[in-house]
Specification:
By secondary structure, the protein is mainly α. The protein has a domain of 54 residues. The chain contains four helices and no strands. The N and C termini lie far apart (113 Å).
Length: 86
């Protein structure tokens, strides 16, 4: 003997019928955290961020670049005393 029983219901109705808990709030929270981590990872892979990681000794701000250039050019001027030979 073969009996086929067809039930037309939504997944939420089936879970409620069998007494299973509603995991939708927990799944939404977990998915939001995963999404935020993925967005953070994408923003960390911008060209500027990668250069900061790969070249930490390169000046990062315009002020740091100006100071580095000033130090470099004053180091090679004749009155700085760096190239003097007594």
């Amino acid at each position: 003997m073969k009996i086929n029983l067809e039930i037309d219901c939504t997944p939420e109705e089936a879970r409620h019928f069998f007494g299973l808990p509603d995991l939708r709030p927990m799944q939404d929270t977990v998915m939001a955290r995963i999404q935020q981590r993925m967005l953070d990872a994408v923003s960390a892979s911008t060209p500027e961020a990668l250069l900061r990681v790969w070249m930490p000794t390169v000046p990062q701000t315009p002020e740091q670049m100006r100071d580095a250039m000033t130090r470099m050019f004053t180091m090679f001027t004749p009155d700085s005393g760096a190239d003097r030979r007594d």
